């Protein structure tokens, strides 16, 4: 990066208001050619809005967008793309029933006369792009048949159809495995080497510090400052982001462990997982770590009655049980905080109180009607206990931040007084500040005697919250570590399927 | 579901644009037609509205569930045919006016059964309710023709056809039945566990399953409720006509869906309420009645209703658009 150069993209004093919200308040931002510029901020800080302004999906109320020295006005994503600005969405915005090639060139398919699609050129070009991305599939496949990671690759391939000046990656690694991340980082470095300016949005500090040259932080829609990555550290960035330091140390306060609450023996469900055996004691946090697709979520779903196992036993308090439906699991005191809180955990159109009492509302009646007072009592209790920030129980959950949404889901299950709490990816898509709150909450819950199972793809998270760690690879348990034995190296080896000699 | 604490009348109207519209057409026809603002005409409107209104109550539940029921018109016809025909069966010949009881009971049971079949198929096969009830719509209408032999049944018992003319004080019985059902369904939807689950299942089916709600049986219950209400509507309609024709209730599913959607219920499920549906039903009732009084040809009524449907939903989108949902097309 050189200081003499003209910035590839410059945003000056961008203001964007929505009815009732000042989403962006005079934001400045610039990317040099060949620079990776990370954009950071908590959820709701305005990152996504800023990027939508940049991609022509929103019009700024004030301020200028300057591309290669010239002020521009963009009103559609296609126009933005023509200016060399490409946005790679956090949530996949692909048409699942179309081929990968059609998706890559969506909106600008190569045409022959009379508006007919030039299929030969389309497939030729898209296959060339996919090859550059080291993808092992061709443009002809239907997107619905691709894995999430490969769909992400299609999304990225879209950026390469034009000579991009600026490529914006909005949380690109959220659904990628570690191996796929490496490929993505290579692509980013390749783009960088060719003088493309990269805007990189992510919650993951480790990625930001490996990739970026500079970091810009937003808070509450306002510009907080730009740091040079080489001269800063996580603490400084976090302070800028949330206005205070974070306590990242592991909660080492030991509490006594109780009896074994849940035990699983030789549980199999082909082809997802086989011969799974483990146990969880009261007051213990067991972390399940592995790559996406290693079968962790499926085990949780089986324990919660959403899948039926082929063979094996589940024991609660030492006696074997049958779990055929979530209702059975709930009765046995097993609760699941699912992986996608928006798709599986919450009814977004319902208010906070109704979401929290959903599994037990049938027990909260007076006469034929639901007793509002009893429900509000439960909501108030867990709002205070979990420090959920919401103006009122009437607020629909859709507008809450990710951290608060997750707390509603956790509160929902705690209010059922479970004995085993399974949390699947508890902090996915949640900003740093709320993340550490959730971690402390999980530790505190264990200290109160709950048996907690944490499934996570983030190593720092697993290391931080777990008393024991179960490493999984392709449907099998590779190794079990205690918090004292575990090292990052041995953990990585275990989840990559490398069986080391049992010396840690 | 309410989601804000301060509900002023204006804000309430912005959330329920259909009631603003009801008010508007009410004032309009009161000024335009001397026959409109009259107590007996109001009775008329309520009675005319009750047929579609009863079904719309059930449709609100089914649509909040994220389903739809297209078979209601045919169910109505089948129930009406049973109600009128069974009275004249030889086995009840000596029952006097009591012969109406088994006839109406059987008709209502048939309605519940049709709903149960719809719901059961949706539950067990997972086929979209639109397709299942589209099939049921054709199939049940076929049954009606088989049963009636393509001819109309006439009620021989005059007590039956006089029923529709009864009043309790100033209120016609049919209107009272409709209003009572409205109140009951409103309470069920807004205050009971079943109502809460209705929103949850429609809002996010997966989350509802995770919360231990038995989604399949739950949806079946709502289909049975709408089947019952469609049958009740058919019985009441046949008392008004003193007869059951095989084509009774044709296109009613479309009127009902129009009323429910006008009332703010989302086709995708999870949102809607009975107050809105009542507004939608009244809007259609008042428009048809008022234009009839002004002697507007019936076909224009369709054109106007169609335009209003789109206009009201457009206003709803304008007023209730959220800060981040305003993606331009």
TrEMBL record, chain A:
The keyword S-adenosyl-L-methionine does not apply. Its main location: membrane. This is Ribose transport system ATP-binding protein. GO terms for molecular function: ATP binding; ATP hydrolysis activity. It comes from the Bacteria. Residues 9-245, 243-499 form the ABC transporter domain. Transmembrane segments: none annotated. It holds the Pfam family ABC_tran. It is found in: Cell membrane. It comes from Roseinatronobacter thiooxidans. It is a peripheral membrane protein. Keywords: ATP-binding, Cell membrane, Membrane, Nucleotide-binding, Repeat, Sugar transport, Translocase, Transport. One of its GO terms (cellular component) is plasma membrane.
TrEMBL record, chain B:
It is found in: Cell membrane. Signal peptide: none annotated. CDD domains: TM_PBP1_transp_AraH_like (cd06579). The chain crosses the membrane at residues 12-33, 45-64, 76-94, 100-122, 129-148, 168-189, 223-243, 297-315. Coiled coil: none annotated. It is a multi-pass membrane protein. Its main location: membrane. GO terms for cellular component: plasma membrane. It comes from the Bacteria. InterPro entries: ABC_transp_permease. Keywords: Cell inner membrane, Cell membrane, Membrane, Transmembrane, Transmembrane helix, Transport. GO terms for molecular function: transmembrane transporter activity. The keyword Transmembrane applies. This is Ribose transport system permease protein.
